[in-house]
Sequence to fold (625 residues):
Amino acid sequence: MTSPTAYLLAPVMALTVLGGTEPAAAAATAYDGQSAHGTALFSVKATNNAAAQAFTTGNTRVTRVSAYVASGAATGQITAQIRKDKANGASSIASRTINLASLGGAGSGWLEFPMNAAVTPGATYYLHLQATTTENKPIAWYGTVSSAPGALTSWNYDKAYWGGWHAYTSRLAFYVEPTGSERCGETQQCYVPTTALAARTSGLLGNLRSTEAVLPAFAVGASYVGDSNVLRLPSGRWRYLPTGATASVVVPADHPGALAQVAESAGWLAKGTVPGTTNGQRAAARRALLSMRALLQPNGASAAAWSPPWEYSWPRDGAFVAAAFAATGHSEEAYRILQYDVRTQRADGTWEARTTLDGSGPPDGRPWQLDGNGWVPWSVWQWYQAAPAGTRAAGLDALYPMVRKAADRAAASLGANGLPPASPDYWELPTATTNIGTAAPLLAGLNAAADLAGSRGQDADRVKWTAAARKLSAGIARYFAPLGYQRTIDGKHGRDSAAAFMAPPFNRAPADLPAALVSTQRALLQPNGGLLPGNDPGAPWGSYAWTASTGFFALAWAQLGDTARADAVLNWVLAKRNGLGEFPETVNGAGHPSSVAPLGWTDAVMVMALSARQGDPLPTPPLPL
Fold:
């Protein structure tokens, strides 16, 4: 640092005191912290820079101090000391060093240092910070240039500019013996590595009526309490969303309301099954199930994630979530999603691309998507296969009119070539010719609808939809199979992870599909180990891998019994969960979770894949007879 103006807004704020001892405090009240940290005040990089904050305390022992710091360096150390004389290291009565790499590298926030210092109440001490790094990156202690009631002096050591220590009226952000909301992770963030901010959300709180996102800045150092959506904070206190509330509260650990929520979540999980072949896989499945439940609204809308651009219900995402709930014995939640589909189906039998969570309609003019006419009947079929035998017939009676309208529209959409028209698919981008992301789901939906019709004795429907499924299957075999199930039949848009939609549990795999899956996976593989949705040169993916698209292959290979390939993909996706154990939507080029976490679609894919991998594959709609 060449001058204090690099971190202090105005050098004129400096006092005329150039050294010496701290003046006695003007009042008996201890000055042991202030939280304002809007300005990077002083560099603390050794050997030319350090900073110190004078303080007094009413305690006889200090066990923890904190400071708001920001580091552009990813490696190095920050040392905090409690000194009797700011300028004399030998006067230190307690010291603690934290390694930047252990924090996740470059970042910013409140950094807490455990201490064990016997102090004299009312005496003046100095919280001294200094950092070492080989990187040419700044490390600064933040604070405010505004006044702080009862404040003692902040000191800047700048050997090159001041020749030593210099006093300032600006106030460093610090706490001595922080308690309650002064602890980081409650109202102010702990030190958060920059890499963690690649995602918008990191977790979920919920009470079955309302949902709240855990932001990345408040996920660091936190963990869920058991299998629940109650969060244990770095301070040891808990944050949860009480019954009937729309905003979370922080409570002491073991608070009765929070404990009741923990017990309820565990009880709900116990009513179904948790797939996985290892403890780690089962833990991931439990978290995915709880996250899907937290995203599920009372009216059956299944939010994609809990950040404004994702707080909508997509028929496609909801179908996967309903199937995952059904597969794990949570039939009630699955059926609630299907009832929402009934209410949001358009008069012509189709669905909007997405709807607002109140079910009132689409949030914008995004074109509707035909693939929903396959996904929804397929998810009804999955629910029906797993639902209790004594109640499923009545449940299907209520859903069947929706299935009929959807399947009739799907059948009517097929052209002379046996294929549906071009429609935006899960990429939510238009194509000039038919895409596999629409054709494959429609085939699954028609086969599912035909089987459901047979279950209800609706022979006319069964015959009609069976004929449509045969026609579509022939069209796919003629136009997509020779291209290795690429994205479009014109062969201009490359490979697509939707090739996996031709595999179980969606469709009975054609003989040439296993080879196509291998070649598609290789074509979409990124350096970070995940997959792109597709390799169309015009696609907007960049270097980001998408966990749902990657998971499609884990699901397909697990369902097909190719355990080696399934395990390789499963292990990659499992390894990309964030610190709270949530699956993110994407993984950036550096290998870090990004976009949002959790994503309900990925949760569902992984639950189904883990179920298949443990030997309980989901059923697949039968081929037409």
About this structure: The two ends are 79 Å apart (CA to CA).
